[in-house]
Design brief:
- The chain is of the alpha/beta class.
- Strands 1, 2, 3, 4, 5, 6, 7, 8 and 9 form a 9-stranded parallel β-sheet that branches.
- The longest helix has 22 residues.
- It is globular, with a radius of gyration of 18 Å.
- The structure holds pyridoxal-5'-phosphate.
Length: 239
């Protein structure tokens, strides 16, 4: 099968599953956005996605994303940073990404504030929460969430739009449900109890293994890579 047809078919399957999950949860079918995470594929594969109508893509490394963006200048993608962000990469990241999903410390937020002020451009961010408490994972612990969101909310150049999480890798996606529910509950608690400039709206949660469960638990944006690129020829994949 041609790569373009393969991607069309895979995207169709992912979107159908998203719609089914919306129906099961009594949500409207267009209430969840699909972010295609392209870290494992070449710019050529990304160009095919653009032809298929994909507009929002996620990358997890700043330099790699910049290299890709240079080759894809004619595509109008909205770029999202979903990986861990180092402070020394903030300046470069703000030149490309329209939403940073992975803010997990006050120091990182402060650097984004500094760099956004230099550019005179508001930076849109999500706070990454480590809902499972797994020490090997990035993200702010649940207990620290309130302090961090209140701090970010006091930074004038940051627009804090919601929360992001990664559930642990498990055999059975059902096991991720409580983590996604915990993120939704935390968002609601913060909206009710924290001192914020505006409400936290967006929940970025769910990947290939668990996006359907995440949608049932309230995800507004799912981040999917593997399911979209299944079967893609080697030459369109990155090593
Ligand atoms: C790679 C990645 C994804 C996509 O994961 P898949 O399992 O390939 O769907 C989502 N979110 C983040 C933060 C990632 O790094």
């Amino acid at each position: 099968m041609e790569a373009l047809d393969l991607l069309r078919e895979n995207l169709g399957k992912v979107r159908a599953k998203m719609e089914d999950a919306c129906r099961r949860a009594g949500r409207s079918e267009d209430s969840v956005a699909l972010l295609v995470v392209t870290k494992s594929v070449t710019p050529e594969a990304m160009r095919l996605l653009w032809r298929l109508g994909v507009t929002q893509i996620g990358e997890n490394r700043v330099q790699e994303a910049l290299r890709k963006a240079e080759k894809l200048g004619d595509c109008g993608f909205g770029w999202h940073m979903v990986g861990h962000l180092q402070r020394n990469k903030v300046k470069a990241a703000l030149g490309l990404f329209e939403l940073i999903h992975s803010v997990d410390s006050a120091r990182l937020a402060d650097e984004i504030q500094n760099q956004a002020a230099r550019r005179s451009r508001i930076a849109r961010v999500l706070v990454e929460i480590n809902v499972s408490g797994d020490e090997a994972k990035f993200g702010m612990a649940r207990e620290g969430a309130r302090g961090l969101v209140e701090h970010i909310s006091s930074l004038g150049m940051l627009s804090l739009e919601g929360l992001m999480t990664m559930a642990p890798l498990v055999e059975d996606a059902e096991e991720t449900r409580r983590h996604f529910a915990a993120l939704r509950e935390l968002r609601d608690e913060l909206n009710a109890g924290a001192t914020l400039r505006g409400p936290l709206n967006l929940l970025s949660m769910g990947m290939t293994q668990d996006f359907e469960v995440a949608i049932e638990e309230g995800a507004d944006m799912v981040r999917v890579g593997t399911a979209v690129f299944e079967g893609l020829p080697e030459e369109l994949r990155l090593p």
